[in-house]
Design brief:
Order of helices and strands: HHEHHHHEEEEHHHHHHEEEE
Helix content: 25-40%
Mean pLDDT: 88
Number of strands: 9
Low-confidence stretches: 19-50
Number of helices: 12
Strand order of the largest sheet: 1-2-3-4-5
Distance between the termini: 30 Å
Length: 303
């Protein structure tokens, strides 16, 4: 295994560990978040003015940590079922209208959808949705990394898109794989939203912390140093970009940058300026890093 492959595998295992930590934190809250027999959470009834059948068609960017990473968890559950070739679960996860449209059945599902994955991890970068709606459509753009440990290789898929449809009262949901290379915002705003009956699958809300989100940001940047170095370069703040002549110069230092950027957070503070949240992060060596967050997963990094 060469040095590059070792770094990529280390990054992947780091991200898996972070997901596991979030899952442990989440499990501590499960008893409080379980829907009651009537379908509502204790102490979490619909907001004032919101009825049981509230439905909105107005599309906006999702900017809530818990909701964003809950959608991420839903899509990663889909990839887990696909990679394990679990026909019944995959059919339950796929939207029934999508199955009808594509002619998907139990005997051809893995010929109709991409399924040749080993250990795939999906990272959403943008999500648009119809807020304040019981039946909620999440239009998701992100990237996928598939690691084949037996072959010592990692495959990167950029611009992977999904539609996840959920019912926030019953917590049932369905998945629709979308074409790659869509402008996900334009697609979401032109999509014909309709009320849907969702009968299968149950999602649980992921409860995040600011620290876990910052760790995710740091590791996404480290991940992209090797998977998509030009994209990582575009994540730099303007001042940090001045450290390099251009992207090609930045590329020459990817290993040194990877070793310098921490994978965990020792401490952090936060402030807001002109609608941008600025996180100042220190690592165990008291090095200072800054993350400028416009919205969830839309950030620049400074060092």
């Amino acid at each position: 295994m060469n040095q590059y492959q070792k770094k990529v595998l280390f990054i992947v295992f780091t991200i898996i560990a972070i997901i596991a930590i979030i899952a442990v934190v989440w499990s501590l809250f499960i008893s409080d978040n379980e829907p009651s027999p009537g379908g509502e959470e204790p102490g979490n009834s619909n907001p004032p003015g919101n009825t049981e059948d509230a439905f909105s068609t107005s599309i906006t960017a999702l900017n809530d940590y818990d909701e964003f990473f809950t959608v991420s968890s839903i899509i990663n559950d889909y990839y887990e079922a696909v990679a394990s070739k679990d026909v019944g679960t995959v059919l339950d996860l796929l939207d029934v209208d999508y199955q009808t449209q594509m002619g998907i059945a139990a005997n051809n599902v893995f010929q109709m959808i991409k399924s040749d994955y080993h250990s795939a991890t999906y990272t959403p970068m943008q999500i648009y949705y119809n807020a304040d709606s019981v039946v909620t459509y999440y239009f998701v753009n992100g990237y996928l990394e598939d690691v084949d440990i037996t072959d010592d290789r990692s495959i990167y898929y950029d611009q992977v898109n999904f539609l996840a449809i959920v019912n926030k009262n019953t917590r049932h949901y369905a998945i629709v794989p979308l074409a790659d290379n869509l402008d996900i915002e334009d697609y979401a705003k032109s999509y014909q939203l309709v009320q849907k009956d969702l009968e299968f699958n149950t999602y649980r809300v992921v409860n995040t912390t600011e620290e876990s989100v910052l760790i995710t940001y740091l590791n996404v940047f480290r991940d992209l140093l090797f998977l998509d170095n030009e994209r990582a370069y575009q994540m730099l703040s303007d001042n940090t970009k001045k450290l390099y002549n251009n992207w090609q110069d930045f590329y020459q230092y990817q290993e040194e940058i990877y070793d310098y950027i921490p994978s965990t957070v020792f401490g952090f503070s936060k402030k807001e300026e002109n609608g941008v949240i600025i996180y100042q992060i220190t690592d165990a060596q008291q090095n200072l890093f800054e993350i400028y967050e416009n919205k969830v997963m839309d950030f620049q990094i400074s060092y």
